[in-house]
Predict the 3D structure of the following.
Amino acid sequence: MKTKQPGFVLVMALFVIALGSIFVTSLLQRAVSYDRLHRVLLKQQQARMLALNGIEIARAQLSNPLTLEKEKNPVDQNIVPFLYVDQVQTFSLTTDKEGLNGEIKLFITSEEGKINLNKLYNFEEKKYLVDKDNDAQKNIALLNEPIHKNFGIENFDQILNQLLQKKPLEDVTQLINKTFKGTLFKDLDAVEKGQVALTDLFTLASPNNQLQPLYLSNSLSNILQLEKQELSKEKRLEIVKKMGALKGQIQWQQQWKELLAPLYKKEYTGIPDVIKKSLASKIETTAFLVISYGKVDGGHSTQVVQKVCAYLEKVNIPETKTILYTVKRLYWL
């Protein structure tokens, strides 16, 4: 005679096995996700370090003295940066040499080649600066159309006046409003020419309202319709040699054709009068903006990219007669 046997043991066994399978599967999924996350974070950190290394490369380029052949004294350190500014520099890395596949993209621009907005205004009298040669308000009004075209900001002169009436600007980004639609920082990967970026056009870091003609930024050159040329290192070195040979103040009306016409593809007579009156007669640099991209191979035909921007300020060291550039501000983009 057959008797019924209880089957709860089998049911419990299947339940425990199913529960164990779920636990192991969840553990494996977490382990795989953690491994992927770890790899991504590692790649991001590597890219960040490359981006920061780009800033250090810029500091070295700007600080290192240059001595030309057959010359005893080094070239004026205010002229040397021209060898590196306003061009995208690319440094490639490989696993065999540097330990990873990556790339550093670097762009240096002088703040003396941009329009200093604070230096156009008299904060005591609450009005734009006016002298016999220059009317800052009229000059700013000339920018209304290109500013609206490139950044979507209407009545730029009035907006700027309202901001400056309160207090000096602390950052160029204060110009951004609801209608802003342009580029804030120069895009080093952009293919199209004629790019205009807000921080490449305006500054608050230069010591006065003069413009250094050797260092006019790409964005300002584009607005002024100057066809700024992408010169080779050899061509840049030729200009450095000529500039280094000059003594005293520079008369741009006489020397523009030889020195800067090849760079801007425009004669002195074609330069707007507003800009002519603002050109500094002595080459001097005190601050630079550096944008650096760090790129690392992320696998599967992808790249991990980190972007950083730094403002560098010149520091003279009298004891050693050397120049260093320190990081004044740094932004991750």
Notes: The chain has one domain: 44-332.
